[in-house]
Amino acid sequence: TLATEYPTKGRGGKGMKTANVAEKNGPLAGLLTVKGDEDLMIITDTGVMIRTNVANISQTGRSTMGVKVMRLDQDAKIVTFTTVAAAEKEEVGTEIETEGEA
């Protein structure tokens, strides 16, 4: 959700709803501010780790159910997540030429 969807409130403001949290989708793991050119890394308590580019995650409006970025095993929980510099893309199908006999 774009930061511009969160209007500035005065001292007496009651806050702003960010997500529709329900039993179906589970609790909100957390929030990060991103630029869009970095990768998101998520680690679970069972040792599973994924890394995906932030640009590949669908954007939703404020106060929605959100998007599922990672499927968790039955009792697994997310222990941490962070942004990291985007991984450099490898060229597929390139061969390295070497001298000598094979």
- Head-to-tail CA distance between termini: 54 Å
Tally of DSSP helical segments:
0
Order of helices and strands: EEE
Helix content: under 10%
Mean pLDDT: 79
Largest sheet: number of strands, sense, barrel closure: 3 strands, antiparallel
What is the percentage of strand-forming residues?
15-25%
| Class derived from helix and strand content | mainly beta
Question: What's the alpha carbon Rg, rounded to whole Å?
Answer: 20 Å
Task: Estimate the global geometry from the Cα principal axes.
Answer: extended
- Give the spatial strand order of the biggest sheet: 2-1-3
Which regions contain 5 or more consecutive residues with pLDDT less than 50?
Answer: none
Number of DSSP-assigned strands: 3
Can you put this structure into words, describing what you see?
With 102 residues, this protein is mainly beta. It has a domain at 17-87. Helices cover 0% and strands 18% of the residues. It has strands at residues 39-44, 49-53, 78-84. A three-stranded antiparallel sheet has the order 2-1-3, with no helix packed on it. It is extended, with a radius of gyration of 20 Å. The N and C termini lie far apart (54 Å). The relative contact order is 0.24.
